[in-house]
Write a structure and sequence with these properties.
alpha/beta; Rossmann fold; Chitobiase, domain 2; 3 domains; 6-stranded mixed beta sheet; 23% strand; globular
Length: 693
């Protein structure tokens, strides 16, 4: 660490008396922790030092093109821009389905040109080739055809993301025996790519047009998601995987019972994450190398400065080892090079699975580093083929589920609707004992739904089944004549009871799936940034909020490869954004939408004073940061003064939420690429969205 950075930290450190913490139990309580400023900052700095990366941004800056090169590319791109203007006209409505397949080329070149993302001179010729490909597709669409949609082999396509309306690319390997006219469902492998901090859309598309990748099984669709660049397929990168899968299913016949998840290095980390959190979605998982959690992989507990209490709880969102129990449902085969330090991921998962009575199948390439050993690769191919052949079990008689958050609430026919306490382990073990009885044991669960779709319920339809919940027998609704079944249960006063309606009715403030926090959760689905139109004089808080708004819009493009939807507060219409989370920046003085919604939120915010529960702050120099159910748009969030909360761009293992449900920032301390400013208060709301004090 440089002397200048040490001096900067010392300059910002708090007064120990003025900032005495209001609570000292950092393991479980929210804390007014000015004293933890230096500790928290140093924890972040340590994480960044481990990665060896600069915090300025993950994408490596590209070449500085000369004026002639820039003008040449712009002139070459112009015909494609003009063709796209024609294709969006009403006369070509038919082309809308295939328009993203053209837009991926325009975006790839335009983005690289605008944001200095050409990393090699040869990519200038690649760009011209992609423009030609885009023009060819545009010409076909203008003639009412889309021949690439029926092409076998390597195909690159695109879709429009629900999150921000951005165009995202994906690569495909289409089986040679696929016929668009007459075909049967194909298995699909989802392959997650490794880390590459130069992986622009341009580079990704070029790779996917010339290479089938590491594995391309016969008679199998292979999907290569872009994952929105380089985030280990977390956050919006996770959403991208599932949006790309849905896009493929719209165009190709996919066998839902035989979709496998695979990946290596960063893709191996993504594979572990998606395998344990969505174990019922896949027929098999074959992660290679990567990482499975943050603390041990980064060596954080060996550092002098330890992470803050809420950071350790937030690791439970993405750490795969604490979700290992879910692999009970998913055939999993890990691979590691014997000399690869990333063998640590499989070793961590091996230990975690053993705690639940499972032995991890682990292929180790002898005397091999960060690569596939040839013989091990052959064995991996054969065993993967065997795991996929029969397809996944659609209606298992036994279900095991563990989670720490309602972001991941479901496994097969069991869905959790409420937890007694977030970020603590919840688990369910359920079994269909016979045609009229289900037994279920639970921990840290307050509400759940058992559901089986039409044609799948094995229970008898001529009598009401009995569900034993933690030893308490409850009569459930009968099975429908279409062999579907659904039953809701809530726990009140320590006793389970069946209810007719959904356990968490709309409008009732309870944490529930899709509305449980933390702040970063809002950026995994559609959101709109509401910008302030007013001005606040001599306000540190207002200036800080505007800088953070700029950071979100800038880094959203750089890190997640989209343009955040934005609207000025005076132009904002509630009805136009009912499908989105509202992200409000500014203060009640400067943002009219924030002023409108403030009376319905749990904080009190005047021009001179900010009150968060029992804590008072000077509103001129303190800023609230929080996520909360939107009282004006039920079922969606309102976020105040925050974007995604990880700030450093080092190891992908550091890309985890860094703030909980709420925080207060001292706006006099300028935000950096490490921290948003001095954190005066931070914590989680309880299960009723009340202050967790």
């Amino acid at each position: 660490m440089t002397l200048a950075l040490w001096q900067w930290i010392d300059h910002l450190k708090p007064n120990p008396i003025r900032d005495m913490p209001a609570c000292m139990n950092f393991a479980s309580k929210p804390c007014h922790h000015g004293l933890l400023w230096r500790a928290g900052l140093m924890g972040v700095v340590c994480m960044l030092q481990i990665s060896g990366m600069q915090a300025a941004g993950l994408m490596t800056p590209g070449l500085r093109l000369n004026d002639q090169q820039i003008e040449d590319l712009r002139r070459t791109l112009e015909p494609l821009n003009e063709a796209l203007e024609v294709l969006v006209e009403p006369d070509h409505a038919w082309a809308a389905t295939y328009l993203p397949d053209v837009l991926i080329y325009q975006k790839a070149v335009a983005s690289a040109l605008e944001h200095r993302e050409f990393h090699d001179v040869s990519q200038l010729e690649v760009a011209k080739g992609l423009i030609e490909d885009g023009l060819a597709r545009a010409a076909h669409l203008l003639n009412g055809r889309a021949p690439w949609a029926s092409k076998q082999g390597l195909v690159v396509r695109g879709y429009r993301s629900r999150i921000d309306d951005s165009i995202q690319p994906y690569g495909l390997v289409v089986p040679e025996n696929w016929d668009a006219a007459v075909s049967f469902p194909f298995p699909m492998d989802v392959w997650l790519h490794g880390r590459d901090n130069r992986l622009t859309e341009l580079k990704f598309i070029e790779q996917r047009q010339r290479s089938a990748g590491t594995f391309a099984p016969a008679n199998t669709l292979v999907l290569h998601p872009y994952g929105r660049f380089c985030n280990a397929f977390k956050f919006a990168g996770e959403t991208d995987v599932f949006e790309a899968m849905e896009a493929v299913k719209r165009h190709y016949p996919v066998d839902d019972r035989r979709i496998a998840i695979r990946g290596f290095s960063m893709g191996g980390a993504g594979c572990w994450h998606l395998a344990v959190h969505h174990a019922d979605q896949w027929v098999a998982a074959t992660p290679g190398a990567g990482f499975a959690e943050s603390a041990e992989y980064l060596g954080l507990w060996k550092k002098e400065i330890k992470p803050l209490w809420f950071e350790t709880q937030l690791w439970r969102l993405y750490d795969a080892d604490v979700y290992a129990m879910n692999l009970f449902h998913l055939p999993t085969l890990a691979y590691s090079g014997g000399n690869d330090k990333q063998i640590q991921a499989a070793q961590v998962m091996e230990k975690a699975m053993a705690e639940h009575g499972m032995d991890l199948a682990h292929l180790i390439g002898p005397e091999t580093g960060h690569a596939y050993h040839p013989q091990s690769k052959e064995e991996l191919v054969a065993r993967h083929r065997d795991m996929v052949r029969l397809g996944k079990e659609v209606m298992p008689t036994k279900v095991r589920l563990t989670t720490f958050t309602l972001r991941y609430p479901e496994m097969h026919w069991v869905r959790l609707e409420g937890l007694q306490r977030h970020w603590h382990r919840a688990r369910v073990e359920a079994e269909i004992r016979n045609e009229s009885e289900i037994e279920l044991l639970s921990e840290n669960v307050s509400a759940l739904t058992l559901h089986m779709p039409a044609g799948s319920c094995p229970l008898a339809s001529d009598k009401a089944p009995v569900v034993s919940l933690d030893g308490q027998r409850v009569v459930a609704p009968r099975v429908g004549s279409d062999r579907s079944w659904k039953a809701h249960f809530v726990k009140k006063g320590g006793q389970w009871q069946g209810v007719e309606d959904h356990p968490m009715p709309a409008g009732q403030w309870r944490k529930k799936p899709g509305l449980q926090g933390p702040i970063d959760d809002a950026f995994m689905d559609r959101f709109v940034v509401v910008k302030p139109s007013g001005q606040a004089r001599r306000s540190y808080a207002d200036r800080w909020a505007r800088r953070e708004m700029g950071r979100l819009t800038e880094q959203w493009r750089a890190q997640f490869r989209g343009e955040a939807l934005q609207v000025l507060d005076l132009d904002f219409q509630d009805d136009a954004f009912q499908d989105a989370h509202w992200v409000l920046f500014g203060t009640p003085e400067t943002n009219a939408v924030l002023k409108k919604i403030l009376p319905y939120l749990p904080l009190k915010w005047r021009s001179d004073q900010l009150m968060m529960g029992p804590y008072l702050f000077d509103a001129a120099r303190h800023v609230p940061v929080m996520i909360y159910p939107n009282p004006l748009n039920p079922g969606k969030y309102v976020v105040i003064n925050s974007g995604f909360t990880f700030r450093g761009f080092g190891s992908n293992a550091t890309q985890v939420p860094r703030l909980p449900d709420y925080a207060v920032i001292d706006a006099r301390t300028r935000a950096s690429e490490d921290v948003p400013g001095r954190i005066e208060l931070a914590g989680f709301f309880d299960e009723a969205w009340q202050w967790g004090f």
